[in-house]
Amino acid sequence: MVEPEGRNALRSIAVVGNNAVAWTSAAILAQSLNRHGVVVTLVAGEQTDAQPLVEVSQPALPRLIELWQLSERELLSACSGLFSLGIKYRTPGQDGFFLPFGTHGMAPSPASFEQTFFKLCPKGRRRQFNHYFLSTQAALKGRFEFPVDDPRSVKSTLRYGLHLDLSRFIQYLETRAGTLGFNVARADITAVRASAGGDRVEALDLSNGQRIEADFYMDCSGERGRLIGEGLGIGYQSWSHWLPWDSQLSCFAAGPSDVKPYSEVSLNADGWEKTVGLQNGRVHQYFYRESSGFDPDAYCRKVGADPVSTRPLRPGRRDQFWAGNCLALGDAAGSATPVVLSELHWATKSLLLWLELYPHRDNQEALQREYNRRCGEILDGFRDFHVAHTLAGAGPDALTQGPESLAWKLSLFTGQGRLWLNDEEPVPQETWVALLLGLGIEPDRYDVVLDGVDEAVLRNTHEKIYRKLAQESERMPSLEEVVARYCPAPKQ
Amino acid sequence: MTTSAIERVVIVGGGTAGWMAAAALSRLLPRHCSVTLVESEQIGTVGVGEATIPHIRQFNELLGIDEADFMEATQATYKLAIEFIGWGSADSAYFHPFSPFGADLDGIDFHHYWLKARPHLKKRSLDSFSVASHAAAANRFAPPHARLDIGYGYAFHLDAGRYARFLRQYAEARGVKRIEGKVRTVHRDRDEGAIESLELESGQVIPGQLFIDCSGFRSLLLGQTLGVPFRNWRHWLPCDRAVAMASPALDPVPSYTRVRATATGWQWRIPLQHRTGNGQVYSSDHLSDDEACQQLRDSIGEAITEPNFIRFEPGCRERSWEKNCVAIGLSSGFLEPLESTSIYLIQMAILKLIEYFPAADCAGAGREAFNRWMSMEYHRVRDFLILHYHLNRRDDSSFWKECRLMGVPDELERKMALFREAGAVEHYEYGLFAQPSWLAVYLGQGLEPETLDPRVEALPGEAVARKLNALAEHCRQQALALPDHGEALRTRPWTGSSPATLSLYGGRYG
């Protein structure tokens, strides 16, 4: 299979960690690289950190599962999973809003739909923007349907994410490790052996006496960075001045779930609360500052959940995400406080970039530099997206010392009604618009092209669109029906 | 609008930029906003940009201009590619088509497979995997149909003088007021320094709220009046002169631009319906005007116009928009005619002006956004152009040797290092020239990657070559099924049209 010419190709990759990022990365690597002669081994030690209990995915995860040729039905059934069309927000002192997946799907005529919306809808009421997405209309009625591939159908604008019970997701991948194509070593790492120069990982000593030697290492060990930080000494820059929450509580309340096709996020003074439905109950999460006096046990009692330990959050980024023959993924590489965009989403996005660039065994400095550059842009995008959330109800002026890139985005949006898009954006343009409007950040202007356009005509079009979306969503089945028919979790 | 709206826009200069701006603004601005264009018949226009890139179709669509009318009025021909002859080494030749090369296989860029198979492939250059290149080589043309595996975009060669006149008619029919005259004085606001009005030699005073400087290289408003500094990039782009001359129309008429490197510069050949545009671009340090003119005469044979000499400095203004003045076209910057970017840069400036159209105070983030965007465009085009000069093995002149030895901008150095090391093309989402263009020049001009993607390196070369041979043959057959370009121009033997997008390659890449 591998010719002598390929002698410089990677032949083995070790993935380190025992969490969703590690298991998923091992699966992605095996699925992409087994056919190129690469052996993937997951080194899964004791789970020390508390886990977030649930994965609230972006629409990228279902696509990945399809790519692996895993059965989505089986996966959802095994993980008590639900489909999600977006996120429902509650913000202090205001009505909430919905942040839909998918698009509104309306072509510019003569200016983009958002611009016509700015013209028609007075300031203060623009949270309504999200109602022009079929995802929103359906979600708020508790309904769900799969997207269709035909661009003429309004259902082609739908996208969905997944809610998955994380420990079951890991179990699911574990039982399929053989099919997916990776080995699992159940042991803790006792020592990371670095090269003489200290810039490459040479081997891992394990608690079972085994020694793992691989050509390349994926550090999915969480924020401590067992390989990249402790092993290779790559530093970490803190973003706690922008994202001050240092703890995350996750707890599970069992019982018949109120099945909703969305997760819920509340932006409170003392932190962010997130509620995620599963088929067999609800996960409650709280992102808070330890010094704030927030009482996790009291919170668990309040929501009727089993008490669970909390895990530390360390917003920031690694100085290098890829150093020598080691790639940091997820929290080991950096964290933008995973309130909306999960750690798994960040890890998957960066791993796919690495697979696109894909190195040899030797050091390739330029390739590494390109990866680190682009990955930094990806994480900056995640960071700006979450820092923007801190402005809920406070307005863009509240961003006094935010990242320059976000300050610039906000000033152009409020001043001109335009979104500045960077090379790497975490979400599509329309999602940004829906978020900013939802948070109460509103533009002063709209497209000059619309200045002479008759308002009544535009209004008529908007009303027609709204009615069409409302009708279409009424005809969709409820999420409960879809789940019961398609992927019910086994009764326990 | 919550702030008061602009009601008077004044454009200075009536070349390609001036009339493109006037036409677009007359179409897109609300009726209560007047557009006045001042031009003088005594001031010649440069008439650059006879070759375009596919984005111009989006401009036509925005203005509601029918493609057939446009082609008739401008005596346009179709363009699928640029052929580079003598770039890199004196005997090299390659196409830079408006299309990607091949298609990704197994999630890995196509060119890795081509590099792997190359020792086993006879006469299959990278452009063998582009339908557009095959069609150009065979003087054929039709718009891409939707079912092609490897699609393409297309553009036009046009008569810039006729294009300006065509747009003038369009703009005047939509209410643009044209004033003939030369600007004598530019009056500015005492406190802010913004432009208040233009005084013509006739004594007429033209007041305005927003001024668009399309005055060409003079940069009358932005440069001369507002003093925005010029960034000179001659140390990277060595040519500063051009001489242009027309020759009779070609038969058969090519569906591509040809640019041929000479010992101290390069020559263009742009086929139109009624004539052929030719030019010699050169460095005044290495060639006199007379020598350049003679070189051009020798290569074109029969000339049907007198030589037109053009002097330029490659570079751009530090900001394109200052106070209430927006420079569009040569007044804001000029890089090189090499990749036909002049009209594109005009078009993008117009689109961005509309996107960030100011309120009457001309302040705010929109101006900054416009400047950031245009600066990004200029820098990305600049680096791509420098690459053409820098990447050469020619030893026939000190001109090429100096280009080879010069230091290049850091961003370009980084891009080249990445390709040299791993055959990877640096990614960016916005701005012109994506992966296929960089590949065409890197590989067309001999920048060889030291390693390939290891997943491809491990494959058996001969088997890959068999697969690629079949693909190249498939591309060639698709191209040969297209009508002859001359026939296409006469009868347009197709129905429907392909969507006009802001893409060089028919939609697949930026």
**Uncertain runs of chain B:** none
Radius of gyration of chain A: 23 Å
Total of DSSP H or I helical runs spanning 4+ residues of chain A: 14
Helix segment count of chain B?
A: 16
CATH class of the largest domain in chain A: Alpha Beta
Distance between the termini of chain B: 33 Å
The greatest interface here is: A-B, 44 and 43 residues
Any overview of this molecule?
- The complex is a heterodimer of chains A (492) and B (510).
- By secondary structure, chain A is of the alpha+beta class.
- Chain A folds into 3 domains: 12-81 and 164-237 and 319-382, FAD/NAD(P)-binding domain; 108-158 and 384-481, no CATH class; 247-312, 2-Layer Sandwich (Alpha-Beta Plaits).
- Helix content of chain A is 32%, strand content 20%.
- Chain A contains 14 helices and 22 strands.
- In chain A, strands 6-5-15-16-17-14-18 form a 7-stranded mixed sheet.
- In chain A, helix 1 runs parallel beside helix 6 and helix 5 (134-140) packs across helix 13.
- Chain A is globular and about 75 Å long.
- Chain B is an alpha+beta fold.
- Chain B is 35% helix and 18% strand.
- Chain B has helices at 16-28, 56-63, 67-74, 110-117, 131-137, 160-173, 220-225, 289-300, 342-355, 365-390, 398-405, 410-422, 435-444, 454-457, 461-480, 485-491; strands at residues 8-12, 34-39, 77-79, 81-85, 93-97, 155-157, 177-180, 183-188, 195-200, 205-207, 210-213, 230-232, 241-247, 257-262, 265-271, 276-282, 308-311, 315-317, 321-322, 325-327, 333-334.
- In chain B, strands 5-4-14-15-16-13-17 form a 7-stranded mixed sheet. Chain B has a 6-stranded mixed sheet with strand order 7-2-1-11-20-19.
